């Protein structure tokens, strides 16, 4: 997900602090730019991050490089990239009024559009909603003609009258999408409605965590079906973590929980940046043992949990600091030999606390 050059300089601003709802922070610096676009269901009301959590996890596990983009940001640490363009309470016309500027700012290659629920809930000229959606899609394709635009049917609503109106609206979407395709546009239909039932709703409108994950699975399947929409699997963003003083790499001799991280001769590229986490062996994270924050706390790997002891700030000065502890990743005793274990230590700026994330030669 990160470019080979410039990752460290950008990461200082990217990985600092806990992301709360608000302005996006441009966490990713490489990969296919994907804009999750819509209302509160994109934002993740009731379950912050919403479907984006499960989609991010699936994309990462699949070896894709993806950069979520948008002017908004929210979600838990387990969501590696918090950027999105989800606006709670917004209707189609409100999204349409802003879409051109958003697209010009974020320049996505792929757009995930789920919108129309608030038109139904607000009973806002419901009969005109299909035409508004069609116009919105036209504005997206005109502004970003090479973008892949995925248009989802809206998910079910618990209120029977609103659900009936939603079904009527949804019934118009396949024909609209087909007409855009006939015109040579990169527009794709996503049947999101049928993936959920009202049992998947927490409040009659917004999904439960399980419901959002069902949405994630549908988005991921749709993206995989369109070549290039999320890049090519296997082209991972894995990096070597190279000690400035030693010239050796941080690595682990095994992939079991609790394995100490130590210096080793560089071979391969075991670490994949994912938001504030550095992952290895699929689902293991660089971890401060026992959530320790004191000098000398061993650095190990552990199954990724998203907790603060597994989050790291990669700083422009070459240090890597624990979000929870504020201490630096350190080669014990300024050691440079293979087998030297890594620990947390108060930052002092010496070379045994300086690191470079680089692609394998």
Automatic annotation (TrEMBL):
Residues 239-358 form the Ricin B lectin domain. PANTHER family: SGNH HYDROLASE-TYPE ESTERASE DOMAIN-CONTAINING PROTEIN, THIOESTERASE 1/PROTEASE 1/LYSOPHOSPHOLIPASE L1. It holds the Pfam family Ricin_B_lectin. This is Lysophospholipase L1. One of its GO terms (molecular function) is phosphatidylcholine lysophospholipase activity. The keyword Membrane does not apply. Keywords: Signal. Residues 1-26 form the signal peptide. It comes from Amycolatopsis tolypomycina. It comes from the Bacteria.
């Amino acid at each position: 997900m990160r470019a080979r050059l410039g990752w460290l300089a950008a990461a200082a601003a990217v990985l600092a602090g806990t992301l709360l709802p608000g302005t996006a922070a441009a966490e990713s610096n490489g990969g296919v730019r994907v804009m999750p676009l819509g209302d509160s269901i994109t934002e993740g009301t009731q379950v912050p991050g919403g479907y984006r959590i499960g989609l991010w996890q699936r994309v990462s596990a699949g070896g894709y490089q993806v950069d979520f983009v948008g002017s908004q940001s929210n979600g838990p640490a387990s969501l590696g990239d918090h950027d999105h363009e989800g606006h709670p309470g917004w209707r189609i016309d409100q999204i349409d009024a802003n879409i051109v500027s958003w697209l010009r700012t974020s320049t996505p290659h792929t757009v995930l559009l789920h919108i129309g629920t608030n038109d139904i809930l607000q009973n806002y000229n419901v009969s005109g909603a299909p035409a508004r959606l069609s116009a919105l899609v036209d504005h997206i394709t005109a502004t970003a003609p090479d973008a892949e635009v995925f248009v989802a049917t809206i998910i079910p609503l618990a209120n029977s009258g609103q659900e009936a109106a939603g079904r009527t609206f949804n019934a118009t979407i396949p024909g609209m999408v087909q007409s855009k395709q006939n015109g040579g546009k990169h527009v794709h239909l996503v049947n999101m409605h049928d993936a959920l039932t009202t049992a998947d709703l927490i409040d009659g409108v917004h999904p439960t965590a399980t419901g959002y994950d069902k949405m994630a699975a549908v988005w991921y399947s749709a993206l995989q079906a369109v070549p290039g929409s999320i890049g090519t699997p296997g082209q991972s963003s894995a990096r070597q973590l190279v000690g400035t003083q030693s010239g050796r790499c941080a690595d682990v001799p095994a992939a079991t929980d609790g394995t100490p991280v130590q210096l080793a001769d560089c071979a391969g590229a075991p670490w994949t940046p994912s938001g504030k986490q550095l992952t290895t062996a699929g689902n293991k994270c660089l971890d401060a043992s026992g959530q320790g924050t004191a000098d000398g706390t061993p650095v190990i790997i552990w199954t990724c949990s998203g907790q603060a002891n597994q989050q790291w700030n990669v700083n422009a000065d070459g240090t890597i600091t624990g979000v929870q502890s504020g201490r630096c990743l350190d080669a014990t005793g300024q050691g440079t030999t293979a087998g030297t274990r890594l620990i947390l230590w108060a930052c002092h700026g010496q070379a045994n606390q300086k690191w470079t994330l680089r692609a394998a030669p």
